[in-house]
Amino acid sequence: MRHNKKINHLGRKSAHRKAMLSNMASSLILNKRIITTVAKAKALRMYVEPLITRSKEDNTSNRRLVFSYLQNKYAVTELFREVSTKVAERPGGYTRIIRMPNMRAGDAADMCMMELVDYNEIYTNEGKKAPKAKTTRRGRGKKEAAPVAEAPAAEAPVAEAPAETPAE
Fold this sequence. Notes:
Blueprint: H1 14-31, E1 33-37, H2 38-55, H3 60-70, H4 73-86, E2 95-103, E3 110-116, H5 146-150, H6 155-164
Antiparallel strand pairs: 1-3, 2-3
């Protein structure tokens, strides 16, 4: 039975495990994305998310506590300056684990990409622009060349721009 066995020891002694998680957390904070195994990513999530929560309140005590875990002053400054401002409104869940289809060649371990959630432009709304209105094509072979030839190029966007703004 697995009662009260929350920590995955990852087949390492405690000093090796702590050093590895510290290095991986520093790499994640500095690079915003790392590629590792699924087991290590799950262990790293439990290690790094409380540190990101601590970084929301910038004081000497929190900086010292985070430094005792990371042992990297560049990662600590990056965490408190850049990362904490991006995750200020987020109540938790600062990391995302995306499983990769390929496995490691040596031992066929499941690989994944772990990233900070707010730094991925694909999934966040910061990189997106307003969606265009969906148009449907109803005719098959009919093409209307008359409106394109008659409408001047400079006047058409000016007349259409105010009509699209209230729809958003």
